[in-house]
Design brief:
Helix content is 49%, strand content 17%. The protein contains 9 helices and 8 strands.
Length: 205
Amino acid sequence: MLQYVTDANAKRSVEDQIKDVLAAGCNWITIDPSGMSDDEVKSLIEKIMPACLEKQAFLLIKDRVQLAKECNVGGTVLSQEGVTPSQARMDLGAAAVIGVEVENTQQIDRLVGLDMDYVVMPYKTLGLDGVKDLCQYMQQKEMELPRVAGIGVGYDDIAPLMDAGCNGVAMSEALADAPDIAVETRKALSLLKVYEEKEQARLNS
C-alpha cells in the first residue's frame, strides 16, 4: 500500500503532485493542509476530485475533520494533538477511513478498541528500529490494524520497512521533489507489489 502525502513546499503545485501520482497508479492521497486555508483546500479538492473519482482513489485530509466532512472526502489522518479518533468517527460516519499517527507504545495502547482503520508511524523520528519495535508491539497485542510508515520515507527505505512489519508506506518529499514524480511513484508501487504478492501467497497457503 502506497500513500502519497502532499507537500505544499515542493516546487510543483499540490494539484500537479496529485495528478502525477494518480496517473502513475497511486490510489491513496492524503492532503496535508499545512500553510493552506480551508478555502484553498476546498478549491484544490474541486479541481482534483474528478481525477480521484476516475481512478477510484481514496482522498483524505489530515487533521481538519470538519473540512473533510464538508468536502465529502474519504476520511482523515489524525495527529496526536488533533481530534480524537472517536470524535472523528462520529463526525465523519461509519464509512470514513481514519488513520492515527503514533510514535510510542502508550499512544498505541490508547487506540485499543477504538473504531479506526490504520496507524502511521513517523519513520524520520523513530528510525527503522523504532518502527520495527512498534510493529512487534502491535503484533504482541494482537492489534490487526494496518501499519504504515510515514514522514521521511524514501524509495530505498521501502524494503527495510516492509521487512520490519509495515503493511505500507506514506511518501511525500521523496516523490514531490523527484525530477519525475510519476516515474518514482511507479518504482515505489512496483516494489510494494512484491510484498503484496508475498502476503497474498501467505494468506492462500
